[in-house]
């Protein structure tokens, strides 16, 4: 699926241009200004995390996503090698829209939990692309939210609450790390707002949590959302649960914790109960901080594997326990994202209709010939 090589040419980031208003409920008519920000098709979309890189292809503006492939980042030295390993298609992709588990800060982007460095100029030259756009991975998750359906395959609602369709939405995702992003609807556009909310502090509230928190390994002297609500964090939490009980931890990998809980083991069960409670608590905080009446969406690799622990009432009770605003938060819905490639859905939606989104392209969009 790799693009054919093209002639080498200098490239530079493209400055963002202003977008006119468009309606959420009907397709906007692209203006000449918008067409300059459109991406030539076919478009390669990619969701690159700390462990896996997911790729797919969009043949034209109205086409479905096709050619899904997933590779382990550890198997390749860089994303160019990974893309070249996918094989060739005809016609070859002319653009790449990529979501990265890292802030995009320049011409070389080092991933947070992976040794890959993304070099968009080199991608244009070696892969024969015309355009490369790099965005944050949870920005892409946020872009997907208006396209996901409450049908049990894309989304399932956890607990009560009623969505206001054009209101602010928040996505929270435990995986290799803890991703957080907000999607705001303003001036007829969906505007994704990335951030580093996964690194906010997280502390105990219930009496039974205090001994566990006292035993949690500190990262830089802190206990943050990501330090327990992630793959490595789940193992860190299990060790603290065992230490609070005066027992050795029987687990050495995160998947052993979930397997232990499924088998009814006490330490595994308590770990996932605390995991679900903590995730609900921090999700409720994000709901309050942005007044996310459009819903809070739980994404990432871990939630789909522990669904029964998120839907047994523990998560939702912690989410709603926000006195003095319990009634307000109780009316905000929460959803589990079941779609296995939601970030690619968001990237495809943006590539097909950039005029519907208020995405800041400055310093993140490279074009052949500049």
The strand order across the widest sheet is 1-15-8-5-2-3-4
The oligomerization state is single chain
Largest sheet composition: 7 strands, mixed
Q: Spans of 5+ residues with little confidence (pLDDT < 50)?
A: 2-36
Helix proportion range: 25-40%
DSSP E strands, number: 15
Count of discrete structural domains: 2
Task: State which percent range the strand residues make up.
Answer: 15-25%
Instruction: Assign the CATH architecture of the largest domain.
Output: 3-Layer(aba) Sandwich
Structural shape: globular
Radius of gyration: 21 Å
Class by alpha and beta content: alpha/beta
Order of helices and strands: EHEEEHEEEHEHEEEEHHHHHEHHHEHE
Mean pLDDT: 88
Distance between the terminal alpha carbons, to the nearest Å? 25 Å
CATH topology of the largest domain: Hexokinase, domain 1
Number of helices: 13
The CATH class of the largest domain? Alpha Beta
How would you explain this protein's 3D organization?
With 370 residues, this protein is an alpha/beta fold. It folds into two domains: 157 residues, 2-Layer Sandwich (Nucleotidyltransferase, domain 5), CATH 3.30.420.40; 189 residues, Hexokinase, domain 1 (3-Layer(aba) Sandwich). Helix content is 30%, strand content 21%. The chain has 13 helices and 15 strands. The strands form three sheets. The protein has a seven-stranded mixed sheet with strand order 1-15-8-5-2-3-4, with helices on both faces. A hairpin with a 3-residue loop joins strand 10 and strand 11. Helix 7 crosses helix 9, helix 8 packs across helix 9 and helix 9 runs parallel beside helix 11. The relative contact order is 0.19. The N terminus is likely disordered.
């Amino acid at each position: 699926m790799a693009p054919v090589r093209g002639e080498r040419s200098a490239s530079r980031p493209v400055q963002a241009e202003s977008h006119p208003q468009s309606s959420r409920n009907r397709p906007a008519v692209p203006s000449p200004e918008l067409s300059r920000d459109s991406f030539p098709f076919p478009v390669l979309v990619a969701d690159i995390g700390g462990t896996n890189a997911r790729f797919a292809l969009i043949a034209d503006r109205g086409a479905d996503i096709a050619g899904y492939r997933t590779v382990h980042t550890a198997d390749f030295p860089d994303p160019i090698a990974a893309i070249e390993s996918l094989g060739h298609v005809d016609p070859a992709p002319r653009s790449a829209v990529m979501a990265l588990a890292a802030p995009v800060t320049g011409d070389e982007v080092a991933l947070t939990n992976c040794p890959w460095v993304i070099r968009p100029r080199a991608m244009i030259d070696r892969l024969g692309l015309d355009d490369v756009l790099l965005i944050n991975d949870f920005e892409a998750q946020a872009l997907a939210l208006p396209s996901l359906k409450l049908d049990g395959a894309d989304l399932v609602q956890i607990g009560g609450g009623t969505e206001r369709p054009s209101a602010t939405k928040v996505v929270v995702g435990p995986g290799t790390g803890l991703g957080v992003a907000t999607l705001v609807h303003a001036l007829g556009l969906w505007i994704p707002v990335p951030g580093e909310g996964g690194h906010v502090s997280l502390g105990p509230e219930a009496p039974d949590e205090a001994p566990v928190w006292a035993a949690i390994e500190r990262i830089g002297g802190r206990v943050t959302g990501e330090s327990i609500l992630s793959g490595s964090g789940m193992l860190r939490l299990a060790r603290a649960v065992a230490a609070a009980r005066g027992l050795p931890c029987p687990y050495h990998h995160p998947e052993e914790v979930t397997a232990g809980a499924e088998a009814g083991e006490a330490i595994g069960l308590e770990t996932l109960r605390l995991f679900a409670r903590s995730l609900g608590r921090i999700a409720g905080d994000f709901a309050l901080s942005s007044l996310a009446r459009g819903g809070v969406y739980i994404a990432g690799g871990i939630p789909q594997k522990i669904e029964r622990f998120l839907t047994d009432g523990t998560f939702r009770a912690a989410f709603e326990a926000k006195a003095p605003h319990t009634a307000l938060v109780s009316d905000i819905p929460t959803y589990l994202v079941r779609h296995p490639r939601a970030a690619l859905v968001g990237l495809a939606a943006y590539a097909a209709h950039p005029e519907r989104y208020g995405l800041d392209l400055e310093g993140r969009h490279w074009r052949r010939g500049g």
